[in-house]
Amino acid sequence: MRVLFLSPNAALPREVAGLAPEMDIHAALPAEATSALRARAYDVLVLADWSPEALAATRQRHSAVRLLAVASTPSAEIARDAVRLRASDVLFASSPAEIAHALRTLPPDPAYSATGRAEFSGSTIALISPHGGAGRTTLGVNLALALADDGPSILWDCVPWYGVAHIALDLAPGTAASEIRAMGPEELDGLLIGYEQTAMRLLPAPSDVHAAASLAPDVVESVMGGLLRLARWVVIDTERVVTPGIQAVLERADLIVVLTRLTVASVRNLRAYLDGVLRPYPPEKVLLVGAGLPRAPLSARHVGDLAGISLEHILPYDPAVLRADAEGRPTLLAAPRSPYSQAVWRWAHLVTERLSRTPVTLAG
């Protein structure tokens, strides 16, 4: 077993290694974990005498590696924190001998491969809208956050021109965002930005507009395949302009969510969009969601009649969304009891049930 200790106390991993010579034990500072994992694969990370902040940061950066949280003092509160922050295992041990024994007897976890990376069989949800201003990015941010309750989630900002998902989360865009190309999970993992103490991470849009617009289908295939090995849920924020790269997203996605405003002009535009861009896909792969307005002129029945597809869900108009956007925070966190937040939670639950029950593929 290959073990990487993340601890400022270099003596502890040396003592554990002396007591368990059959194991391949290494040590690094928490800040050096990323470079250590890139250089070598480990079966388990050991975080000793951690704080909630340190555990959250480690799990955000390394969501797909088995993580053993070790604390010297037994405490129900510490155990709850470890579970909440998604430690794989919790160990209360006051001596190197106890840690060595725990590592020797650590039960195998089928969720992790021999390289220490989780093998997720994830689902992909593509968000698209035939018109701007419907709240697609806002929905993507909040949906990815809600789905993270069911397993690690990734929001990929795949908008060809000026992706702003990082702004909605008040995050720096990431210096490596312009380097998106055909790459494996290990490289993609280094581009992901963790969001606070949640199981959601962001793959930001390339900072170079031309690079984003020319995202090739083979690159999309590679990135989506890599992301699905890193998370249970992958939410992809796209744009109304369907480039070859965006077309590849739609073909690979398990579910295409079409967001529309509830106005006559918008729904007419939507009908043309459905007949053109989304025509190749079976009905069960396309989910129509309405963006509520203060005084929406159309009902769900009217939209269904005009668009030729049932409007399955309406996200209510909610001033809390505007306030949360101004703060650079998801509405689910800024106003968890607001009508919009409650609607997203209910809808996320329906999405998880739908994708768990019905496999969907491209027609023909």
Overall mean pLDDT stands at 80
- Lateral arrangement of strands in the main beta sheet: 8-9-7-10-6-11-12-13
- CATH homologous superfamily name of the largest domain? P-loop containing nucleotide triphosphate hydrolases
Categorize the overall geometry: elongated
CATH fold topology of the largest domain:
Rossmann fold
How many domain units? 2
What is the succession of H and E elements? Answer: EHEHEHEHEHEHEHHEEHHEHEHEHEHHH
The biggest beta sheet reads:
8 strands, mixed
Taking pLDDT < 50 over at least 5 consecutive residues as the criterion, the unreliable ranges are 112-118, 358-364
Q: In CATH terms, what is the architecture of the largest domain? A: 3-Layer(aba) Sandwich
Radius of gyration: 22 Å
Output the structural class.
Answer: alpha/beta
- Tell me the span between the first and last alpha carbons: 46 Å
Oligomer: single chain
Number of helices: 16
Give the proportion of residues in helices.
40-55%
Number of strands: 13
Question: What would CATH call the class of the largest domain?
Answer: Alpha Beta
Describe the model.
There is one protein chain. By secondary structure, this protein is α/β, with parallel strands linked by helices. The strands form two sheets. The chain has an eight-stranded mixed β-sheet, with helices on both faces. Strands 2-1-3-4-5 form a five-stranded parallel β-sheet, sandwiched between helices. It folds into two domains: 2-104, 3-Layer(aba) Sandwich (Rossmann fold); 123-357, P-loop containing nucleotide triphosphate hydrolases (Rossmann fold), CATH 3.40.50. The protein is built from 16 helices and 13 strands. It has helices spanning 11-19, 33-39, 52-61, 76-84, 96-104, 136-147, 165-168, 185-191, 209-213, 217-228, 244-252, 264-276, 300-307, 319-327, 331-334, 339-357, and strands at residues 2-6, 24-28, 44-48, 67-71, 89-92, 123-128, 153-157, 193-194, 200-203, 233-237, 255-261, 286-291, 311-315. Mean pLDDT is 80; it is low at 112-118 and 358-364. The longest helix has 19 residues, at 339-357. α12 (264-276) links the parallel β11 (255-261) and β12.
